[in-house]
Amino acid sequence: MRKLAYLALMSLLLCLSSSAQERTTTDVSLGYSYIRANPATSNSPDFNIHGGTASVALNPKSWFGIVGDFSGYHMDRFDSSLGTYLFGPRVYLPSYRRVTPFAEGLFGVAHATGGTGFSVPGSRNSFAMATGGGLD
């Protein structure tokens, strides 16, 4: 738990140091995710999900950007994976001091492959959507 708090604090400090910079025409980000699932309400065993995300935003205007977000996740216990390929607009709202809030809506495809732990092994594609926002 202490390591997680330290990682969150370091991430916050890195964000604060970059807040003094001007907005560029291109934003690039990389991320890592780890999920430990313990489905207590079912008879399913515990499992881990590891994954990552890469995102690119092109900002032709100071208030508008186009985002491409690509992510991949792997579930070790079930030998399954999920990948998403999302694209869409990002709108920057008026700044408050040195913080600029933004909202985005991304749409695309999710591709899942199932191992032997699922009732339907193989692969499937489906519509995917992500909406949200943040602070820049």
Keywords for this entry:
single chain, 136 residues, mainly beta, Porin, six-stranded antiparallel beta sheet, 6 strands
Order of helices and strands: HEEEEEE
* Total DSSP E strands: 6
Level-1 CATH class name: Mainly Beta
Low-pLDDT windows of residues: none
Largest beta-sheet details: 6 strands, antiparallel
In terms of DSSP E residues, the strand content is over 45%
Characterization of the model:
With 136 residues, the chain is mostly beta strands. It has a single domain, classed as Porin, CATH 2.40.160. It contains 1 helix and 6 strands; from the N terminus they run αββββββ. The chain has a 6-stranded antiparallel β-sheet, with no helix packed on it. A hairpin with a 2-residue loop joins β2 and β3 (64-75). The longest helix has 17 residues, at 2-18. The protein is elongated, with a radius of gyration of 18 Å. The model has no long low-confidence stretch (mean pLDDT 83).
